[in-house]
């Protein structure tokens, strides 16, 4: 049986803790683009791909879990940068796993080439894939990947 879909693919983009400080926090590591300009790039790329997106950010673990759970009712996929929660939030991991949505984990820096503690992700095992090290472009690559995952699942 072939699945069909109508309307644009919908993606939840979720920024974790401290990402609202982009452009201020360690610009030599995280880049000089501020949070608003990063979101503008994400929105422009989503529009060019014909995607409908919602962007949310929180420094609170519970709010991020709420965003993931809310996405279950409307989104086709999730793009998430869990920030430092990547390394220890089993609660966010469980929410992503429970969502059963294709999920792309994103990091601006190559976490595998940084401090040892940043190399461990409890989110990766429940993610469809991980994109790291391309700065702001990590989000754009993730949107493209998420779109393809959804399209392929409906062929």
UniProtKB/TrEMBL annotation:
Q: In which pathway does it act?
A: Metabolic intermediate biosynthesis; chorismate biosynthesis; chorismate from D-erythrose 4-phosphate and phosphoenolpyruvate: step 3/7
Question: What's its catalytic activity?
Answer: 3-dehydroquinate = 3-dehydroshikimate + H2O
Q: Provide the GO MF annotations for this entry.
A: 3-dehydroquinate dehydratase activity
State where substrate binds: 81, 87, 94, 108-109, 118
Q: What residues correspond to the site Transition state stabilizer?
A: 25
Task: Give the InterPro entries listed for this entry.
Answer: DHquinase_II, DHquinase_II_CS, DHquinase_II_sf
CDD domains tied to this protein? DHQase_II
Q: Cross-referenced SUPFAM superfamilies, in alphabetical order?
A: Type II 3-dehydroquinate dehydratase
Q: Does the keyword Amino-acid biosynthesis apply?
A: yes
Which residue positions are annotated as catalytic? 30, 107
- Pfam families given in the database record: DHquinase_II
Question: Which Gene Ontology BP annotations are present?
Answer: amino acid biosynthetic process; aromatic amino acid family biosynthetic process; chorismate biosynthetic process; quinate catabolic process
Q: What class of enzyme is it?
A: lyase
EC number(s) from the headed UniProt entry: 4.2.1.10
Q: Which UniProt keywords apply?
A: Amino-acid biosynthesis, Aromatic amino acid biosynthesis, Lyase
Q: Has UniProt tagged this entry with the keyword Cell cycle?
A: no
SUBUNIT field: Homododecamer.
General function of this protein: Catalyzes a trans-dehydration via an enolate intermediate.
**Protein family membership:** Belongs to the type-II 3-dehydroquinase family.
This chain belongs to which protein, by name?
3-dehydroquinate dehydratase
């Amino acid at each position: 049986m072939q699945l069909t879909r109508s309307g644009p693919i919908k993606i939840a983009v979720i920024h974790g803790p401290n990402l609202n400080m982009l452009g201020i926090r360690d610009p030599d590591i995280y880049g000089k683009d501020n949070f608003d300009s990063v979101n503008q790039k994400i929105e422009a790329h989503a529009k060019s791909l014909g995607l409908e997106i919602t962007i949310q950010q929180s420094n609170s673990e519970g709010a991020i879990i709420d965003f993931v759970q809310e996405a279950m009712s409307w989104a086709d996929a999730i793009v998430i940068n869990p920030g430092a929660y990547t390394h220890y939030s089993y609660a966010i991991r469980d929410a992503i796993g429970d969502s059963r949505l294709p999920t792309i984990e994103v990091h601006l820096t190559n976490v595998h080439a940084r401090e040892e503690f940043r190399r461990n992700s409890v989110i990766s095992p429940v993610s469809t894939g991980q994109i790291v090290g391309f700065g702001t472009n990590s989000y754009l690559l993730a949107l493209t990947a998420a779109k393809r995952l959804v399209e392929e699942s409906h062929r």
